[in-house]
């Protein structure tokens, strides 16, 4: 039964008068009568007993009232849902993020989105380091990703949600731990623990810049899977690491100290990134929330 026919059937069933039902539907009576006849032909059964003075439901007609009402109500719910999706009031957003090092940013985004747009569902996917996170975003596996990139592809837009500082992570008993700020020459001969690099990866680019400034080649002894593992290796005395202030703030360690660089390697931005050509109303709401963040 089509929704339009169900609506017409219910109007006649509730009014038990074709004239009043036609007025209720804002149509003439003859087209309504033809619509009901077509429905009866379609179902192969009479829905109404008609006489010159009265209209009554048949047994089949009475049995179809509730199913018809449910069909019309379901159609109305679908229409309302579609309008809410178009307004960005409901929907799903698949958000990737680098890991524990951006927990504070992701938590704040999630909290504010749920408070301002309770109908949106945010599906979080962690452990998305710079290059793999960007690959998943560009492939369509993610709708947006929070991370740090020095270079973004041309098809990606972004918004800065936080500023960070580059730091060197050292074991607490390391001789350089007593130095307030480290120069390139201080760390030139040190063993380095790094994260996986790749196109646009901030830490790889900044370590190379530090090495160029100090005219040394980094002696890389370990490549850690993520920032937490990187700090564990630093804690174990395997080497030192270039990292972010967000790592210090979000990942607890017992005997690792963090020291700034004496000469800055430039600001580090935490960004929310998304595909420019693939915007949805729900994603637009997330971007609005991100743009309302105070930068620190």
From TrEMBL:
Does the record bear Aminoacyl-tRNA synthetase in its keywords?
A: no
Key word Ribonucleoprotein present in the record? no
**Residues of the HTH lysR-type domain:** 1-58
Q: Name one GO cellular component term.
A: protein-DNA complex
Q: Specify the signal sequence span.
A: none
Keyword vocabulary terms for this entry: DNA-binding, Transcription, Transcription regulation
- Name the InterPro entries for this protein: LysR_HTH_N, LysR_subst-bd, WH-like_DNA-bd_sf, WH_DNA-bd_sf
One term of GO molecular function: DNA binding
The record's annotation in CDD domains points to:
PBP2_LTTR_aromatics_like (cd08414)
Recorded superkingdom: Bacteria
PANTHER family associated with the record: HTH-TYPE TRANSCRIPTIONAL REGULATOR CYNR, TRANSCRIPTIONAL DUAL REGULATOR HCAR-RELATED
Q: What is this protein called?
A: LysR family transcriptional regulator
For this protein's source organism, the top of the classification is: Bacteria, Bacillati, Actinomycetota, Actinomycetes, Micrococcales
